[in-house]
Design goal:
heterodimer; A: alpha/beta; Rossmann fold; globular; B: alpha+beta; Tumour Suppressor Smad4; 3 domains; six-stranded antiparallel sheet; 11 helices; binds adenosine-5'-diphosphate; binds magnesium ion; binds zinc ion
C-alpha cells in the first residue's frame, strides 16, 4: 500500500484571468495610480486564492492599450502567480481598443498564451477603459468573435471608469450590456478591480442556482454584493442591440465540442 | 467589504444578543463571522444571496432550526437573526481549530490524512451522517467538498453549510457545485432539481476523492478538453459521464503522469471497494438514479475495508486480502493473520483495534448499521498480552465455548480470542477460526 502521506495535489484546470487595461493619456494621474495599486493587491490575493482553490489554478495575463497595445505580462504564456510581480503602468497616448482586441485574437490560442497539459476553465477577460475607442474596432471585434473560439466563449466583463467612458463600446465588446459596471471614483475603482478579480477567480467554485444565467452576470452580481455600494452602478442602458450580441453561446454549441476549434 | 465590524451587536429573532467578534471567511452565498451568543463562541453566517426565493429560504431555515439537528455532527442552524438591510443570518456551532476543510486535503499542502485507516474512518463518518440526514427525510442538494470539516487525527467529521438542506424534493434554488452535481442535474439545464438520489451520486464522488485524491470522472477525456465550457462539462459530468475505471470503455482512464495519486492507489483497493465505485459510476447508475448505492451499502464495504487494514511493525499500512497472510510492501515482512472471525459473507482479520459492526453481519435496518458488536483489545493477564473481543452491544451476547457450552457475555465483558469460539448475534453464527 502506498503511503497516504505522499498524496500530491489533485490536478486542476487553469483559469486564465486576462486584464485589458486602458493606458491612454486620459488615464494618467490618479486613475492609473488606482489601477496599479489595485493590481498589486489583486496579484497577492489571487495567489492566495489560487493556492487554496481545489477547483482551478488561476493564472493571469495583462494587455495595456493606448497608441497600439502591448503585453505587460509574458507574450507567450500565462503568468503563474507564484512568482509574479506587477509592473506599474504608465499612461499616455490614444485609446486603440481595436488594436487590443486584435492582439487578443492573435494570442488567445493554444500555441500562444494558452498552453497547458490539462486544459482550461473558461477564461475571464476584464476590459477597463475611461474613454472612447480611437481606432475602428467593430470589424476587428466581429472577426475575433467569429474566428477565435476562446474569445467568443470567454467570460467578458467591462469596467467603465468615469463619465466619459464609452459604455456602448464596452457593452459591444463584452457582448452583453449587463456585463458592464460603471465606476465614478478612484477608491471604488480600486475596490472594484480587486473584488471583480476575486469573484472571477472563484466563479467555478460557487454553487449554482436554478436561475443562473451566465458567468459574466454571476460575477457582476456577486461583485456588486461584495462592494461598498457607493460610486458604482450597473449598466442598465440595455438597448436591444447590445443586450446580448454575437456570443450567445447556443449558436455555437456544435463547434464548441470540436476540440480542433480551440 | 464586510457588513459588520467587531463589537457590532445583532439580535436573534427570539431576542438574544449576537456580538460580532471577527470576520472569518466568505463563501459563495455569504460571509461567516465568529460571534458571541448566549455566552458562547459561535459562528454566524450572514447572507448576500438566498437562492431563488428569499422567503421560502427563510422559512425553510426557520423550520430546520425548530426541528433541530439530525445528529451531533452537523453544524446545524441554531438561531435566526432579525432582518437588517433586507438580509439575515443564522448562528451555528463554531468549527474547532483541529478541523480542516476537505479542500485542504485535496490541495495536499500540509494538511493530510495520517493513514488510510483515518481516511476510511472519515468516509464512514460522512456516509453515516448522510444516512441519518436522508432517514430524517431531508436531502442536502448541494453536497460538495465545502461541506466537511475534518479532524485528520481522530477521523471525526463535522458537516457544515446545511442551509440548503430541505425536505427531500423541496428545492431552495441551489442546484449544486460544478464537478459535484449528479449527471441528471448537469444535463437537466436547470430543470432537474437535486434530491436524495442526486445526493448519493455526489457522496460517491466525495468518497472517491477522499480515498484516491482524484475526481472519479476526470481522466484522459477530461485532460484533453481544451476549455471547460458548459457543453464540454456536460460530456464529462452529465449523462455522458464516464468513470475513469470503467471496464468497458477505457477512453477516460487516468493519465498516470498527471494523476499519480489515483494511479498508485486504485490497484491496491480491495475488490469490494472497486466494485462499489464501479457500480456507483456505471452507465446504469449515471442514467438511473435509483441504481445508486445507498448509504448502508457503503457502510458495509467501508467497515470491512477499515477492518482489513493493519499496521506493520515498520509503520506501513497493509491491506489484508481475504484475511490471509500478507507481505508488507515497504519492508517485505509477512504479516501473520493469527485469528479471524468467520462472518456470514467473509472472514475478518482480528488484529488490535478491529471493530465489528452490525452491517457486517448481513442486511440490517439503516439506523442500526453502525451499531458496534465486538471490538478487539489487548489485555494483560498473568503478565501476558492476550487478545480479547469485547462485547460492545450494550446488551448480553450469546457465546458458545470451544467445548460447546453456552455462555452469556455481559456488556463490556471480554472473551479471549481462541479458535472455535462462536457467537450467536442477530440469529447469525460467527466463529473464531
Ligand atoms: N461553523 C463554522 N465555523 C467556522 N468557520 C465556518 C463555519 N461555517 C463556515 N465557515 C467558513 O466560512 C466559509 C464559507 O462558508 P459556507 O457555508 O461554505 O459558505 P457558502 O455556502 O456561502 O459558500 C467556509 O469555507 C469556512 O471557512
Ligand atoms: Mg458553501
Ligand atoms: Zn513493513
Amino acid at each position: 500500500m502506498p503511503n497516504i502521506i505522499d498524496t500530491t495535489e489533485m490536478v486542476k484546470k487553469v483559469l486564465p484571468i486576462i486584464y485589458v487595461l486602458d493606458t491612454s493619456g486620459s488615464m494618467s494621474g490618479e486613475k492609473i495610480a488606482a489601477v496599479n495599486e489595485a493590481m498589486h493587491e489583486t496579484v497577492d490575493v489571487l495567489k492566495d486564492i489560487s493556492e487554496k482553490n481545489p477547483d482551478a489554478q488561476v493564472k493571469i495575463a495583462a494587455l495595456a492599450f493606448s497608441t497600439g497595445s502591448r503585453w505587460i505580462t509574458s507574450e507567450n504564456t500565462l503568468e503563474d502567480l507564484e512568482d509574479f510581480v506587477w509592473t506599474d503602468l504608465v499612461a499616455g497616448g490614444t485609446t486603440d481598443l481595436g488594436n487590443a482586441i486584435s492582439e487578443l485574437d492573435k494570442k488567445l490560442s493554444r500555441s500562444e498564451l494558452l498552453k497547458s497539459e490539462v486544459g482550461f476553465c473558461i477564461p475571464v477577460i476584464l476590459f477597463l477603459t475611461d474613454g472612447h475607442p480611437t481606432d475602428s474596432y467593430i470589424n476587428i471585434l466581429k472577426n475575433a468573435n467569429k474566428n477565435n473560439t476562446w474569445f467568443r466563449h470567454a467570460t467578458k466583463i467591462g469596467i467603465a471608469v468615469g463619465e466619459d467612458a464609452d459604455q456602448e463600446a464596452l457593452a459591444r465588446v463584452v457582448g452583453n450590456s449587463e456585463a458592464v459596471i460603471s465606476v465614478h471614483d478612484n477608491d471604488t475603482l480600486k475596490a472594484l478591480i480587486k473584488v471583480a478579480s476575486i469573484t472571477s477567480s472563484m466563479v467555478n467554485s460557487k454553487s449554482r442556482t436554478s436561475s443562473d444565467t451566465n458567468n459574466a452576470v454571476e460575477i457582476i452580481n456577486q461583485t456588486m454584493q461584495m462592494l461598498p455600494c457607493k460610486g458604482v452602478t450597473l449598466n442598465k442602458s440595455s438597448s436591444s442591440e447590445t443586450k446580448k450580441t454575437d456570443n450567445n453561446s447556443s449558436d455555437y454549441t456544435i463547434i464548441d465540442l470540436d476540440e480542433s476549434n480551440w | 467589504m464586510t457588513e459588520f465590524k467587531p463589537g457590532d451587536i445583532l439580535k436573534s429573532i427570539d431576542g438574544n444578543n449576537i456580538k460580532i467578534i471577527r470576520f472569518l471567511a466568505s463563501g459563495g452565498q455569504g460571509d461567516v463571522y465568529e460571534v458571541e451568543y448566549k455566552g458562547e463562541r459561535k459562528a454566524l453566517k450572514w447572507y448576500r444571496t438566498f437562492g431563488t426565493n428569499k422567503k421560502k429560504f427563510y422559512e425553510n431555515l426557520k423550520n430546520n432550526i425548530s426541528n433541530g439537528s439530525p445528529d451531533k455532527n452537523f453544524l446545524w442552524p441554531e438561531a435566526l437573526t432579525t432582518t437588517i438591510n433586507n438580509s439575515f443570518g443564522y448562528v451555528m456551532k463554531l468549527r474547532p481549530k483541529e478541523y480542516h476543510e476537505l479542500s485542504e486535503f485535496i490541495i495536499a499542502r500540509g494538511v493530510k490524512f495520517p493513514s488510510f485507516k483515518a481516511a476510511i474512518e472519515v468516509c464512514l463518518k460522512i456516509t453515516s451522517a448522510f444516512r441519518i440526514l436522508h432517514n430524517k427525510g431531508y436531502s442536502n442538494q448541494d453536497l460538495n467538498d465545502g461541506n466537511f470539516f475534518i479532524n485528520p487525527d481522530t477521523g471525526d467529521v463535522l458537516i457544515c453549510d446545511n442551509d440548503n438542506v430541505a425536505p427531500n424534493n423541496t428545492n431552495m434554488g441551489i442546484i449544486g457545485k460544478p464537478r459535484y452535481m449528479a449527471p441528471e442535474i448537469v444535463s437537466g439545464h436547470n430543470k432537474v432539481l437535486p434530491n436524495t438520489q442526486s445526493d448519493r451520486f455526489s457522496l460517491a464522488i466525495i468518497l472517491f476523492i477522499i480515498l484516491c485524491n482524484n475526481h472519479p470522472l476526470e481522466g484522459k477525456r477530461w485532460v484533453s478538453i481544451p476549455c471547460m465550457t458548459p457543453a464540454f462539462a456536460e460530456q464529462i459530468y452529465g449523462n455522458n459521464a464516464l468513470f475513469i475505471y470503467d471496464e468497458n470503455d477505457r477512453s477516460n482512464a487516468p493519465v498516470d503522469r498527471l494523476q499519480p495519486n489515483v494511479a498508485l492507489r486504485w490497484k491496491y483497493m480491495p475488490d469490494y471497494i472497486k466494485d462499489a465505485f464501479k457500480k456507483s459510476f456505471s452507465r446504469e447508475a449515471i442514467l438511473n438514479p435509483s441504481k445508486r448505492l445507498r448509504e448502508t451499502d457503503w457502510l458495509k464495504v467501508l467497515t470491512r475495508f477499515e477492518s482489513e487494514i493493519v499496521k506493520c511493525d515498520c509503520g506501513n499500512e497493509i491491506f489484508i486480502h481475504d484475511a490471509s497472510d500478507t507481505k508488507c510492501e515497504k519492508c517485505g515482512r509477512i504479516y501473520n493473520v493469527k485469528h479471524k472471525l468467520k462472518l456470514p459473507e467473509y472472514s475478518l482479520t482480528i488484529a488490535r483495534g478491529t471493530w465489528l459492526y452490525r452491517c457486517q453481519l448481513g442486511s440490517c435496518n439503516d439506523t442500526e448499521a453502525l451499531n458496534p458488536i465486538l471490538h478487539s483489545v489487548y489485555v494483560i493477564s498473568n503478565g501476558k498480552k492476550v487478545l480479547c473481543l469485547k462485547n460492545e452491544m450494550g446488551k448480553e451476547l450469546k457465546a458458545i465455548t470451544t467445548s460447546g457450552q453456552v455462555r452469556m457475555v455481559k456488556p463490556n465483558e471480554l472473551v479471549p480470542v481462541l479458535t472455535g469460539i462462536k457467537f450467536i448475534v442477530f440469529d447469525k453464527e460467527i466463529k473464531i477460526i
